[in-house]
Amino acid sequence: MVRFKSNHHDFPEVEMNALLRLVPGLHQLSLGIVNVFLLEHDSSLVLIDTGVAGSEDVILNAVRTLGHTPTDVHHIIVTHFHPDHSGSLAALKVVTGARVYMHPLDAVLVQEGRWRERPMTAAPGLEAIFERVVAAPQSFPHTAQVDEHLTPGETLPFAGGLTVVAAPGHSAGQVALWWPKHGGVLFAADAMGNTQGLHDPILFEDLELGRATQRALAALEFEVATFGHGDAIRQGAAQLIRQHWG
Prior knowledge:
Elements: E1 3-5, E2 10-12, E3 19-23, E4 26-31, E5 34-41, E6 44-48, H1 56-65, E7 73-77, H2 83-86, H3 89-96, E8 99-102, H4 104-112, E9 121-122, H5 127-135, E10 148-149, E11 155-156, E12 162-166, E13 175-179, E14 185-187, E15 193-194, E16 198-199, E17 203-204, H6 207-218, E18 224-226, H7 237-245
Parallel strand pairs: 6-7, 7-8, 8-10, 14-18
Antiparallel strand pairs: 1-2, 3-4, 4-5, 5-6, 9-17, 11-12, 12-13, 13-14, 15-16
Helix pairs in contact: 6-7
């Protein structure tokens, strides 16, 4: 088991390819240290994030495990441009034919391949992990076309209604999502993580914006919270997040 050390956290590498039903209709797929999510609604699927480049086969196998075909994925929402979230977008768009949704500030970077466009700094206390990630060899994904721009505050007309929530700080165009089912489900993206406890993302583009986002998400009403990195909180999530950032 590989562990990444810092002054405050010890992040283990999590089991890959684990498909977990969080609530009826919502499944989390672990791709190592990053998660993607599959939402079932009627006969179609919504995919939230796409993992690193080369994750498409694992994601499509999960789709089949749920009894669907790749073309049942009608919508792909990418929460932000970082390659661990947008890496397999190009390949999945070709195979599924899905419409792709992103905030315009991050969509342009994915469409033009500008993966190192913005300066990033380590979150307080997570400098060791940040340096390790930055120094690691990286394979950047293929560029991909985004079909629709997300507007914070809008409710998307599929999957029972997903509300787009502005979540800048980690990335200028990051969005979170709020799903009204099961007492409310927050898709927090990388505004925060939950690896052996709640924590900051390892990096920020703008720390103060990131803190404002954490407080804003903590003010929402939800029972379940999911994260790009770490375990979902399946009960009493809003209260726990408020205790940490509220």
